[in-house]
Fold this protein.
Amino acid sequence: MIDPTRAVRSAVLAAGVTGAACGFLRRTKPGGAGLWDRKNYAGRTVDLSPGPAATLGAAAGALTAGPGTRGPALIATLAAGACGAYDDVAGKGDPRRGFRAHLGALRDGELTSGAVKLFGISAAGLAASALLKKRPVDKLLGGVVVAGTAHFLNLVDVRPGRAAQVALALGAPGLLRGALAAAPMGAAAAVLPDDLGEHGMLGDSGAHALGAAIGVAIVAGNGRAGLVAHAAGLVAAAAYGDRVSALAAATRTPVTSPV
């Protein structure tokens, strides 16, 4: 049963840390503006400060979770955020999109930043799920849900505020089963005005971190039937997104979706 006090505390802590971290990163831009500034879909210059900030905020909010869920939430959130941040930096300018493109490069002997992100987040999802579930099948399904939700948030992050809004929508039902979703929701709410105003963007770091954190909440709050339903939906979404990316690449149409 949900503990309203814990949920509020988690959301407020996550939002506060996210806001403070975003302000600090925007003022200082460690490594120089070239590392942080990007052009969005409309050609406007935005920065990536909200991404790492949301990662830190969601992780901070997870510290208020119970002992059985705190570790999985931290593992998934921080690993997804770190892998996404690596892709934000190392993958800058790489036109390849979609699982097939990155796995194809791997077959040719090239380890792309997208492949690092794919394997890293998948491993973190399995590790988090292994701590939450007892049966091997449930551990595997949970891993798919955590990694799949992380990928899904990145998949929809194609317009200002889209990923944060989807994070809030996906996390809300989870509040009926526990407070774990409150942390990523608090972080998403904190970055939403900045994202909608086109001052900053979540990037791979923020989208994947929020998605992974919500994925952990889904795994923690569902039995096998729920895990199967969520996993099936996420796999279908990933397959569709990969197909869209492949078609866009074939027609030389710019795309900002999956991986």
Q: What stands out?
A: The first helix runs from residue 4 to 28. The two ends are 36 Å apart (CA to CA). The CA atoms of residues 108 and 214 lie 34 Å apart.
